[in-house]
Amino acid sequence: MKMLLLLAAAAGLRAETNVERGERVVREAIEALGGKSFLEMRDRVERGRVYSFYHERLRGLAVATIYVRYLTRGEPPDPHELYVRERQSFGKDKEDYAYLFDEQKGWEITFRGARPMPDPTVRRYRETTLRNVFYVLRQRIGEPGLVIESRGSDIVDNQPVEVVEIYDRDNNSVTVYFHHSTKLPIKQIFVRRDPATKERFEEITRFEKFRDVGGVQWPFNVQRVRNGEKIFEQFSESVAINRDLGDELFTLSADLKILPPAR
Predict the structure, then answer these.
(1) Domain membership flag for residue 4
(2) pLDDT of 164-223, one tens digit each?
């Protein structure tokens, strides 16, 4: 009996494996983001200012409203399917133009009509979305072949973090840094390659200024860096969830002229 008790105590003290620790960190992150409220978030509206940069210099500024609708995912989720639609509308008082992404295609919408986006642009959007930590936690957990592994603790950007690598069965991965105290994701890194040129791009995204939005914690400041250069920053003035957004936001209207692809 004494030996059994000792064995049981030893088993209880067994150190977590990297997978067990990584999965625990992710569970804690989902709970910190809102738990059930986060996992059942149907749609989201973000309004604010977006900046684009080229060689660290401001290239563009726009007032934007970003509409996102989460789609019902397959069970188990298909790693090659995108279970979300997104519309990015630009203009202060009215929509001057917009970008629309569905599960397969992308469109640039202006008063002239809707023009299909180039394949590389759509491919980059899909790849970036599939490896966005919020999308992964909302739509990809439970996906066949998805592995979550801890890379230990560290200090990143002067903040204590838990480092977790998430990779799928195609070996596409994203490394996420979760704040040690808040459990929220504050940074992510992934590498992609241009399929034509094989050029390597390191994409870094930082998430700041989390606020409660209907029971969900959401970052109001997002910054993206590519190969060491800042390329994008978003400052949200308001974020709302579960607004029952209409289909008209995420589909092309029947009377909208379809323009030829850009040359």
Answers:
(1) no
(2) 999 999 999 999 999 999 999 999 999 999 888 889 999 999 999 999 999 999 999 999
Neighbours of 181 (CB within 10 A): 10
Helices marked H in the chain — which ranges?
A: 2-12, 18-33, 36-39, 119-130, 133-135
Domain with 223 in it: what CATH number? Answer: 2.50.20.10
With respect to residue 222, please indicate whether it lies within any of the assigned structural domains: yes
Taking the C-alpha atoms of residue 161 and residue 184, their distance in angstroms, rounded to an integer, is: 9
Q: Which two tokens stand for residue 85?
A: 């639609």
Nearest to 152 by CA among 167, 139, 162: 162
Tell whether pTM > 0.85.
Answer: yes
d(CA 32, CA 225): 26
| Beta-carbon contacts of residue 186 (< 8 Å; ≥ 6 apart) | 156, 157, 159, 161, 177, 178, 179, 206, 207, 208
Distance CA 182, CA 93 (A): 37
Domain, as residue range, for 157: 18-249
